[in-house]
Amino acid sequence: MNIFNNVDTWKRERHSWQGTATSLGFVPTMGALHEGHISLIKQSQKENYKTLVSIFLNPTQFDKNDDFNNYPRSFEKDLSLLNELGVNYLFYPSYDELYQDNYRYSCRENELSKILCGANRTGHFDGVLTVVMKLLNIAEADRAYFGEKDYQQYLLIREMAQSFFLKTNIVSCPLIREKDGLALSSRNLRLSSAGRKKAPAFYRILSSTLSLKEIKKELIRVGFKVEYVEEFNNRRFGAVHLENVRLIDNVPHK
Ligand code: PAF
Fold this sequence. Notes:
The chain is α/β, with parallel strands linked by helices. The chain has 10 helices and 9 strands.
C-alpha cells in the first residue's frame, strides 16, 4: 500500500492514471478501524479498480476537547488491516496539510445539520462537511463510501455533493451490528465490560414498538443518559450517553 501525507504528491499519482479506464473508490475514516469500515472498503473494492482510504482524526468536528482527546487511535493496527485487505492507497495527512487556511473557510448547511445530532453539538456538521469537501476534492474519486450508522451525516454529504455539483458519486452502505445488536462504532472500544454488556439495550429499545416518550423513559430506566430520540424521514434516530461514551443509532420506522 502506498501512503501519502501530502496533497500534491497524491494528486500527481492520481493524475498519472486519470483518463484510463481505472476507477477509484474512496473511503474516508478517522481511524480506529472496525468491521463497519471493512464493509465500506470491501464495497469499494468490489465496485472500483483501485481503493483509497484516508485516516484523519478531524478536530473541527468535535465540539468537546475531551471527546477528541479520548477518541480511540490505533494507527499501527489500522495500517496492518489496510495492508491485509489489499487497499491500494492510504491518505494520512496532518492538520496543517489539510487545513492550510487554519479553518478560515468552512462548509455549512442550515436545516438538517441543526436537528438530531446537530442540535446539541455546535459546529459538528460544519466540521464534517468541511473536511469531507476537502477530502473529496483531493481524492478525485469516482465513488465515495459512507456508512448508514451516521445516517444524518450521509444525507448531508450526499446533498452537499449534489448542491456543489461534485463529480464523486456518494454511496451509502448498510449499518453493521455486533451479534447482540450494538451498532459498530470506534467509540464502543471506550466502554467498560459492564458498559459493553448494557449497550445493546439501546438498539433493542430504539427498535421496539414503544412510543418515543416510552423509549426515552425505558432508556433512562436501563441507565442511559438520553440526548435525543426522534423520528425523521421514516427513520427513528437516537443518541445516548453511557459511561461518558456517546452512542448513536438509527432504525427504519414507518
Ligand atoms: O464518519 C466519519 O468517520 C467522519 O465523520 C468522516 C466522514 C471521516 C469525516 O471526518
